[in-house]
Structure formats: C-alpha cells, structure tokens
Amino acid sequence: MKLAYLMHNRMTLIYQSLSSQQQHYSQHANTNEEQDQQLDKEKRPKTLLERISQEEDDAPVSKQLKAAAESELKVDYEEWKKKILENAAKTKKEEFSTNKTF
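The structure corresponding to this sequence follows.
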C-alpha cells in the first residue's frame, strides 16, 4: 500500500510538472502566434479593395504634385522663351547697328 501511495504521489508530481510546462509553452506559443499574425498582415499581399483605397488616398496628392510640376514647367518655359526673344532682339539690334556703319 505504501508503495502504491508513493507511486501515486510521484505520478501526481510528474503530472503537475508537465502541466505547468505545458502552460508555459502555450503562453509563449500564443504570443508568438500573435506576432506572426501581425507580420503576416504586414507581409501579405494587399487585397484589391485595399489597393484601390490606397490609390484614392494617394491620388489627390499626386494630382496636386502634377499640377504644381506643370505650372512650374510653364513658368520655366515662359522664362526661357523671354530670354530667347530678348537675345534675338539684341542680336538683331546689334546686326542692324553693325550694318548701318558700313
């Protein structure tokens, strides 16, 4: 009887030890699963709806940038055109004044 009692106590201790280890591992496994799920959300390809909504969010900014770039190009073109015409006028004036002296 004593032997059966000792065996029972030993088995109970082993069971409790294994149970506590299992709880410890399951807690770590749950946190690792949550971290993996977060990584999966970040790494997974975006759905069509997510891409469309992101494009809509980005669209106003890109339209504004495009409009600003176009206006800047127009200003640059106008300045370039003005300089070219001024240089042409100076050259023509110089040619006219040079031809007059002969």
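DSSP finds two helices and no strands in the chain.
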